Amino acid sequence: MNKIPVIVVDDSALVRKLLTEIINADPELEVVATAADPFQAREKIKQFNPDVLTLDVEMPKMDGITFLRNLMRLRPMPVVMVSTLTEKGAETTLEALSLGAFDFVEKPKIDVSHTLGAYSDELIGKIKAASTANPQTLVKSASFQVEEKLSADAVLAKTNSSSSLKTTEKVVAIGSSTGGTEAIKEIICKLPANAPSIVITQHIPVTFSAAFAARVNSTAAMHVSQAMDGEQILPGHVYIAPGDKHLLVERSGARYYCRLNDGSAVSRHKPSVDVLFRSVAQNVGANAIGIMLTGMGDDGAKGMLEMKESGAMNIVQDEKSSVVWGMPGAAYKLGAAELVLPLDKIAQEIMKLSR
């Protein structure tokens, strides 16, 4: 069997060694070369023609962002960024995703061997997914795992039907993961200031979610922020789930509110799209519009089906424009969506449905 060739780029010899050992331990992957800086990496890419590159964000001689920008212009390929989970690291990593990086993982901590197994699974899973991505989709355009896969029942019990609402106010619920930060940004930046309220669950670390919301807000007509517990959901506003809590929509009379929940990971994610979508099905019902964007796995598929059963109109991003057609594909195969649209048509459809 042909193994997936990978090149590891990191200025730390210890990190290069650790990443190499983790990757080579998987029978489907092989580190064909390592590089200590972007100049070495450039030559190794020419020599070994890898399928995937892991790239350190901060390196000497040339930083990872500058190298990535040149790489995606001259030789587009799937890149998994290796980032520190800090405020500075968040800004840099979000910029990397905007330039076409496939996804990111945390910089490995050498002294925490008890968590290395989960880290290895995450790294290997993202490298394998990256190897199947379309580099051209990346140019145009995260999730920490737990062992047990729980359903939305762990956070919010399922009810037989949604409440009847005395309001026509629309709420748009969006779920996404790998590739989702740029997909969300593209949709939000195409919407007018008077667009219907939007609630979003994006798989992202807690240190990244506030920076992500601020990044989208800087270029959007709508007001974009990280959701706060108990705040009212208003038209013209976008609420993004914090990276360590589930976001739910609650209703009081004809008003909707954000509710943050610190419960168990659901569908192996926290925040979980399944949790958000179930809460929308129960509290918004036929006044909701569900959107499933690019992402690995199947989080949100069952919740989107519950939204459909409650009368919501659902859209999934098509496979061609998705970085990974895991989450939207799972929802589509479950029969949860009425429409399958390319990314550049979704904002227009949101406004059409909201009217």
From TrEMBL:
Residue ranges of domain CheB-type methylesterase in the record: 165-355
EC number per UniProt: 3.1.1.61, 3.5.1.44
Top-rank lineage group of the source organism: Bacteria
UniProt catalytic activity: [protein]-L-glutamate 5-O-methyl ester + H2O = L-glutamyl-[protein] + methanol + H(+); L-glutaminyl-[protein] + H2O = L-glutamyl-[protein] + NH4(+)
Gene Ontology cellular-component terms listed: cytoplasm
Localization of this protein: Cytoplasm
Single GO MF descriptor: protein-glutamate methylesterase activity
Keywords recorded for this protein, A-Z: Chemotaxis, Cytoplasm, Hydrolase, Phosphoprotein
PTM statement from Swiss-Prot or TrEMBL: Phosphorylated by CheA. Phosphorylation of the N-terminal regulatory domain activates the methylesterase activity.
Main location: cytoplasm
GO biological process: chemotaxis
PROSITE patterns in the record: CHEB (PS50122), RESPONSE_REGULATORY (PS50110)
Residue intervals of the Response regulatory domain: 5-122
Active site positions, chain numbering: S177, H203, D299
Claim: Phosphoprotein is one of the keywords in the record: yes
4-aspartylphosphate: residues bearing it: D56
Listed HAMAP family: CheB_chemtxs
Stated family: Belongs to the CheB family.
NCBIfam families: PRK00742.1, PRK12555.1
Function per UniProt: Involved in chemotaxis. Part of a chemotaxis signal transduction system that modulates chemotaxis in response to various stimuli. Catalyzes the demethylation of specific methylglutamate residues introduced into the chemoreceptors (methyl-accepting chemotaxis proteins or MCP) by CheR. Also mediates the irreversible deamidation of specific glutamine residues to glutamic acid.
Domain notes: Contains a C-terminal catalytic domain, and an N-terminal region which modulates catalytic activity.
Protein name (Swiss-Prot/TrEMBL): Protein-glutamate methylesterase/protein-glutamine glutaminase
Source organism per UniProt: Methylophaga sulfidovorans
Taxonomic path: Bacteria, Pseudomonadati, Pseudomonadota, Gammaproteobacteria, Thiotrichales
Gene giving rise to this polypeptide: cheB
